[in-house]
Amino acid sequence: GVRLLLHGLCTNTTVKSLDLKGNNLRRMGAEALGKLLRQNKSIKSLTLEWNSLGMWEEGFSFFCQGLRANNFLQHLDLRNNQINHQGAGELAVALTQNTSLQELDLRWNNIGLLGGRALLNCLHSNKSLKRLELAGNNVPGDILKAVEQALDHNQDREVILSEAQNQVNILSKEVLSLKDEKNKQFMDFVDTVDKQKEERARSAKISAARVSQLQEALDEQYSIMNSLKTKLQMTEAALALSEQKVHSLGELLNAMKQEQSCIAECHFRELQQQKQEGADREGRLLHDLSAASEKNLLLRNQVNELERKCKVQQDQLFQVKQDLTNTTAELKLRAVEAEERLEMEKRRFKQSLEDMESLRLKEVGRMTQHMEASERSMHNRIQSLEAIRISLEEELSQVKAAALTERGQAEEELIKVRSQARLEEQQRLEHLEKKLQLMTESRDEAQNCCLKQKEMVVEAQAKAKQLSLYADGLKRRLDELQQDLDSKEEEKVTELNKVKVELQEQIGHLEAERTAQDGLREKIAALERQLKALSSNHREALLDKEGEISLLLEKLRMKEAEISRMREEEAQRASFLQNAIMAYVQGSPLGTHTSRK
């Protein structure tokens, strides 16, 4: 039934505690328990009290093999199972490789001295066992004390490891939080830089669009100027035709034509000069214009006004031509009037041209000033933005380099401190363990010697008791014989000689026995003296050992004080590192930059 039950529990994942106390499990039950310990991963507590598992060596060895392969059991109760020193040795071998068992109860078994030593030796490699009960196993007290010391050492080691792990976890969490904060700050900074870049790109696109608009406006102005040039050429051609028509009218008309041609040439030169100046100024405007789209509309309106004025002038010229054609027949009679009219028209034309030029010059000057001011402001803004971008890129590179270097240094220092602390703790623990092993070995040897001497004393005392009992028996026999002699003196007077001879022989024998007893007594006294000397020597050796043990205890206390001091120093170092990291994070330029933002 137990075999079937344990076979079913091999694949169970919900049972945490199993109590099989007092079920008379035998070899098959022990093998089933070993198989259960190998396959089951949920049972944490197993109680096997009053089952006599130690009587079946093969089954108990199979059980120990299962315990060696198990890494989930934490509590095991093996009380009153008749486990001898061999079973304790197999348990010790299993415990050297088990890393999960924390409590083991072996009370009221037959472990003895050898089993206690095996369990004590296994505790040097097993660091997880915290409680081991060995009462009622004929284990010497020094081994029990050594086992308690080893268990206390395991508990102290686990406490130290848990504290160190907690500190490491706290520091790792703080480092991760600092890394996350730095990453967030860096990402925010990168986002701001990207936004600034996008704004710059948008401003560049807007400026390019404005420049394209201005260039289109300039092209329109060029087209307008070309149209004006063509109109001027048309006017010149019309004037040439009028001169040719008037040439036949006479010398006055020739003079008028010459004067008109001279005036036209002067105007043409002035126009060419104005064109050159306008071309130069327009070239300058091409280089200087960056953002004047609104004022181009004003220029367009002004150009439209100029075109209207030119149309008016053309209409006036056409009217003059009509007047000339109408007055060709009457030129001889009205030459004076024609001359006066021509002079008046020339003056009006000159005044209109001068007004146009002055207005255009004023407008061009205003436009150039405004464009220069806007261009300067744009250049200044671009320079400031470039300076800001360069400074931000430099700060970025510096912050990245500083963060990387400091991060690497902090990680290296943490790794070095941890490795040094671990190496120092391991070296000290190994040194103390070696010393404890040597002390336990010397103590075991001394105890063995004491036990041998005690056994010899007990044997001698037993022999002395036997001899004293034999002497008492002989005395009683003598008394009986004397009583028999006294009672039979009257009856056996005739046999006195024979009795005397026999008595003398018996007395001789008794004297020989007395001499032998005296020799034995002397031997016993010598042995007692030797025992006293050995006991005194043993007491002295015990006193020396106790002194050495006290010295070692003082050394252990010193080492524990050093370990506590090292813990405090490590805690101070960790706090210093934490404070330094926090101060670095608070005082870093990246932190100040984010705080400013």
Automatic annotation (TrEMBL):
Origin superkingdom: Eukaryota
Keywords: Coiled coil, Cytoplasm, Cytoskeleton
Subcellular location(s) per record: Cytoplasm, Cytoskeleton, Microtubule organizing center, Centrosome
A Pfam cross-reference name: LRR_6
GO CC aspect terms: centrosome; plasma membrane
InterPro entries in the record: Centro_Cilium_Assembly, Leu-rich_rpt, LRR_dom_sf
SUPFAM superfamilies per UniProt: RNI-like
Protein name: LRC45 protein
